[in-house]
Amino acid sequence: MINNPIVNDFLVQIVAPEDLKNIKAIIQALIDGIETDEAIHEKTDIKLNTVRKLLYKLHDASIATYKRNKDPETQWFTYTWKFDKEEYVKEVTDFYTERLKEREDLLDNLENNLYFVCCMEPEHFKGDYTESSEYEFYCPVCDYELEPYDAKKEKSLLKRRITIDKKNFKKFEDSIQE
């Protein structure tokens, strides 16, 4: 449920890529029923401040909730954390659905439109027929002619990414059922 490329991409939207390993360990600890930041720290050997920071990021993403209790003896607050599996599944599903739609729209756009690029530096300009005609098929950056853009590689890459995402999401759905 957490070892999936779709989940990785989703989690990187919540935390920096270098925190991916730690956030996954924290999620697993929460799934395993460990409820306090100190206990998660002890189980995972992640610095306590990092555990707390990442727990709050999970909370901000609505994936984890907490209850605050005051210790009558010490007057200190303790936080009991819970993993919200239902919200987690919803958020990952929403992320996947949005990304899939974006990729499918981009693919559809590439397949149904003619694009032009600068013949000298393709990075200068890439536009569809309408936009290119506004510049009279000359690059707005360097004034060289625009040439038709061969989108075969880009379309092939998008198709492959869509297929891989669908397969990975199916694995995610299957892991939820377990």
Automatic annotation (TrEMBL):
The keyword Transcription regulation applies. Signal peptide: none annotated. It holds the Pfam family TFIIE_alpha. Residues 3-89 form the HTH TFE/IIEalpha-type domain. It comes from the Archaea. Monomer. Interaction with RNA polymerase subunits RpoF and RpoE is necessary for Tfe stimulatory transcription activity. Able to interact with Tbp and RNA polymerase in the absence of DNA promoter. Interacts both with the preinitiation and elongation complexes. Transcription factor that plays a role in the activation of archaeal genes transcribed by RNA polymerase. Facilitates transcription initiation by enhancing TATA-box recognition by TATA-box-binding protein (Tbp), and transcription factor B (Tfb) and RNA polymerase recruitment. Not absolutely required for transcription in vitro, but particularly important in cases where Tbp or Tfb function is not optimal. It dynamically alters the nucleic acid-binding properties of RNA polymerases by stabilizing the initiation complex and destabilizing elongation complexes. This is Transcription factor E.
